[in-house]
Amino acid sequence: MSAAPIPNIRNFSIVAHIDHGKSTLADRLIQLTGGMDAREMAGKEQILDSMDIEKERGITIKAQTVRLNYRANDGKDYILNLIDTPGHVDFAYEVNRSLAACEGSLLVVDASQGVEAQTLANVYHALDAGHEIVPVLNKVDLPAAEPEKIRKQIEDVIGLDASNAVMISAKTGLGVPDVLEAIVTRLPPPKGDKSATLKALLVDSWYDVYLGVVVLVRIVDGTLKKGDRIRMMGTNSAYDVDRVGVFKPKLTPVDELGPGEIGMLTASIKEVADTRVGDTITDDRKPISEMLPGFKPAIPVVFCGLFPVDAAQFEDLRAAMGKLRLNDASFSYEMETSAALGFGFRCGFLGLLHLEIIQERLEREFNLDLIATAPSVIYKMNLRDGSQIELHNPVDMPDVMKILTIEEPWIEATILSPDDYLGAVLKLCQDRRGTQKELTYVGARAMVKYELPLNEVVFDFYDRLKSVSKGYASFDYHLTDYREADLVKMSILVNDEPVDALSMLVHRTRAETRGRGMVEKLKELIPPHMFQVPIQAAIGGKIIARETVRALRKDVTAKCYGGDATRKRKLLDKQKKGKKKMRQFGKVDIPQEAFIAALKVDV
Q1: Whether residues 62 and 140 fall in one domain
Q2: Tens-digit pLDDT profile for residues 60-106
Q3: What is the CATH number of the domain that holds 333?
Q4: Is there a single domain that holds both residue 28 and residue 103?
Q5: Rounded mean pLDDT of 260-271?
Q6: C-beta separation of 197 from 222 below 8 A
Q7: By mean pLDDT, which of 170-174, 213-217, 566-570 is the weakest?
Q8: Does 502 map to a domain?
Q9: For residue 210, what are the domain limits?
Q10: d(CA 229, CA 206)
Q11: Are 307 and 249 members of one domain?
């Protein structure tokens, strides 16, 4: 099977907000083009969402690719390369690299819900990548669908002409053939020179137990065949190609890949770390001089510690993280120790959902029990000696006397909310030290742009936003800059012992509220011991909040009936001394649920 003619190739991705029907539309396109027959698709939904966790949560985490063969109404045979992308803000890097491999996008908008925050974010990514965009209105069969209103909304908010938007219902299959025709007629074919030297973009890579590292490539110029010797220009390493193929969606070997095609190669590569996403692949014998622009590497913004509940599982956790890192280059980790929790790892994530997904995958796929510490962001510390350090973990904060200023990251958030909940949304942003940039209306919905400090967002902002808006508000953000702030380190002491896993950096004005919320929560969660357990929040040597867990009472006077009161007094005094001694040497057990619940404290 040789490479396809360039004018008959279309590379496209599907961009949309979460739950607007990207993966369901991808299923219908696969079905219509004969990628899988009805028997193979029976009982399966979201075929490209291969992970259990993707199926359960109904979200796409990894961008997936599939090649479809389609005979259009003009009688020609076309090859359509579809990349299904995630919609969640934490996986924007997956979206970016998928868009770099395509010339066009289908913009899927729910005809009942309209334009959401991540619809905007993802369509702007596509426009930045120079894409031709075809608007598609999904779920037009729902009673609440308002296609005409949503068409106007797309024109007003995004500025795209939606007069010829394709009306479909991905669930029932209504209008899906029109989408295939629109892809062929309205999206441009790729450009490329088959006779030139090989130039290809490395779009993605993952580890396969049988094949080693599988590399997803988009050929720009030249051809790629089995037996070719290729060079990765970023890492300057050379390999011999063992296998070339395409996903239909099953892996199918082909003789060669030509310009404009998206396919895979294996070349006995041992580590995913050797294949940098965005790298340029060329011919080792006559390499090209200039690399392709590629795209920015994913930069972690949220850090937290992951520790095994059972210390004996540390080596298992190390092995599991190594395996997970093979398939998720955006996840980084390094070893750390904690007085309260023992040995574990400090991990970097792209956002809270990413953190939650990684933790769930570690627990589920590798059968581990984990404790996660409070999420924190990267702070920049300007020291008095003129140097600057980055702080990932509040425990490592240098002495206050050495610090001149502390800078924290800020984001610009776009929130879309129905008018009824606008007051509650604005109050939430104000409470989180936000400053309002603009407020506009999109039909009956308000679009607010806010500048917010990232450390106020990573905690529980998304949950709070959903609860104050009854689930109707949508949220998207991007990092803007670092700004100086009056931040202090708040420590939590349990029985006069600092619990390093619960220490955090907070703004001075919010420290007391946050500290009080934390100790009250811990009071409910720490079980009573045989002695009193004081729980305190402190900034340096100053206690700002305190609660006490009452001691369990054992009635030592139960066997004294009648007689002199001094007998009872003597026994009670003896018990008091014992409890005092116990408190000095007693170890307070903080259950795992207490850590998790305390970190979700709602203040």
Answers
A1: yes
A2: 444 567 888 888 888 888 888 887 665 555 556 656 667 778 888 88
A3: 3.30.70.870
A4: yes
A5: 86
A6: yes
A7: 566-570
A8: no
A9: 199-283
A10: 20
A11: no
Domain co-membership, 176 together with 28: yes
* Of the residues 326, 347, 373, the one at which a domain ends: 373
Q: In this structure, are 423 and 548 located in the same domain? A: no
Instruction: Give this prediction's pTM.
Output: 0.69
Same domain, 248 and 279: yes
Burial class (CB in 10 A: 0-12, 13-18, 19+), 355: buried
Token pair recorded at residue 376: 């924190």
Could you report the per-residue pLDDT of 106-146, keeping only the tens digit for each? 888 988 888 887 777 778 878 878 889 999 998 888 888 88
Q: Which residues, including other chains, have CB under 8 Å from residue 262's CB and lie 6 or more apart?
A: 11, 65, 67, 81, 83, 101, 203, 216, 217, 218, 219, 246
CB-count exposure of residue 155 (10 Å: 0-12, 13-18, 19+): middle
DSSP 250-275: SEEE-SEE-TT-EEEEE-----GGGS
Q: Which of 232, 318, 313, 310 is nearest to 276 (CA)?
A: 232
| pLDDT at residue 578 tops 70 | no
Quick check: 305 and 501 in contact, CB under 8 A?
yes
Please state whether the peptide bond connecting residue 394 to the residue before it is cis, i.e. omega within 30 degrees of 0.
no
Check which CATH number belongs to the domain holding 521 and give it.
3.30.70.2570
pLDDT of the residue at 55: 43
Do 75 and 17 belong together in one domain? yes
Q: Work out the number of other CB atoms within 10 angstroms of the CB of residue 271.
A: 12
Is pLDDT larger for residue 340 or for residue 60?
A: 340
Is 271:326 a contact under the CB 8 Å cutoff? yes
Note the pLDDT of residue 61.
42
The pLDDT assigned to 451 comes to: 92
The tokens for 344 are 């574990």
